[in-house]
Amino acid sequence: MRNTIKLILFSILLSWKPLYSQAGSDIIFCLDNSGSISDVAFNQMTVSTMKLMEQVLKCNRDNRVAVVHYGTDYKDMTPSLPRIYIESNFTNDLATAQTFSRRLKNGDHFHDAVNLIGSALDHYPHPDIVSPQKTLDKHRDRPLVIVLFSDAERANGNLSSGSYLVNFNPPNGLHEDNAFVAFTKFKMDRNAKFIVVHVSDYSYYIEAAASIASRGGSYNGPIEQYNDDPDHNLLPRFYLNKTNFALTTTEIAELSNSICKMNTAYVDFTYQTRSCKTPTGFPIQVNGNYAIPQGASIVNFQISLLDIATSTMYPTSATVNFPNPNEFEFTINQADLTNPPSGQYKFIIELVYSLGGNNDGVHAENSINSPYDFMYCENLRTNTTISSPAAKFTKPKDKEYHIDLNADPNNTKSMLKEKVQQKNIQISPNPNNGVFMVLLDKVRSGSLHVNDINGKVVFEKTFNNEKEIAVDIHSLPSNIYMIKVNSGNEVFTQKMIKR
Fold it and tell me: Is pTM, for the whole model, over 0.90?
């Protein structure tokens, strides 16, 4: 039985990926219809867009997509002006989303196209939106992602046949804020993210397009810097410089993964496995990336050890630091460990945030394919007294861990002296989908409570002469829950992660 549980847990750990919040994004695919785009090039755009659509609609059923063409000429309309054509409103129906064809021609003015997209989002039917669909019904609280396919130059020509990534109206010299004003407003006022797929081999065009792209991705080349840049002129950028518009399988996977994470809540990190055969060396550095929805605030950011053998969670007291926007790092000293026994552990990072008065959370493990991150060995333990923000733990000779309640100002159950015996209860599997077993060792009678991160009891059950207790909270949100078993004057607790 125990071996089976370990195998199940092991398979979960290997397959567990960073989790995203379920709030969907609105994604606009903006396709260059200018005279420099051949039928072959547009077909490449079409295939790449369809493949991306399929992946982003698959990763989150609440995502929605729309296709917008931009150019200057439509049928017999005169004079030649920057125009857009909206294929359909935002939709999560793949067949509808993938039904589109080339609509415009000639000039290339992406900066002006973005302003027209703004009119559509604001429900202003601008005369230069030449499609039957004049508006885009974006939910106010949804993240907005704009994916551009273009071969545009930075600024060259005129209104009818010119090629302009940036503002056509002067001044639009290098490094001037006015050149990028539409993108600045979208990033600041609409919390929009830009991904740019760009066919060009001229450095000034590349740098301008990379500056339009939002921060993230893997591009670390030069960008055109300007003072008002909402991304603070930082790298990397969501920019792909290519010789054609045919995205590779790897590029499709990387871009769709980025879109699925972009502007939603997520945590992602990597860490090099350490074993007892090599010097452990404290402090340990763990670095990664995160995001929370616009308007949310961080409630808790914690790194813990998950015992692979027992599925027991050992929170650390390491403090998170934020070296750059959307980046985090933990420096773990030996004193930050809450007396884990010798064994193999995975690092688990938990991020809890508050939005609109409600708490939500995401978590992640190391993304490399390794059965463990950290092997903790008895002969490496030098401290017998460990301090943490919640309580002071001392290790007596009998190896039971006693919590000093006076050291915990938030503990309200002073009538009990809690004895935490690490192997008296186990949770399997952990993490799980809300359906799991609580395995009892020496405890035979008492009560079980499941508390959410606010301390609210969401499940309770009394038991008598039982070895296992089945729990089903699959309908509750993905989050961190505390499992608490009361037996006489003893309380046993474990953290549980619902995916």
Answer: no
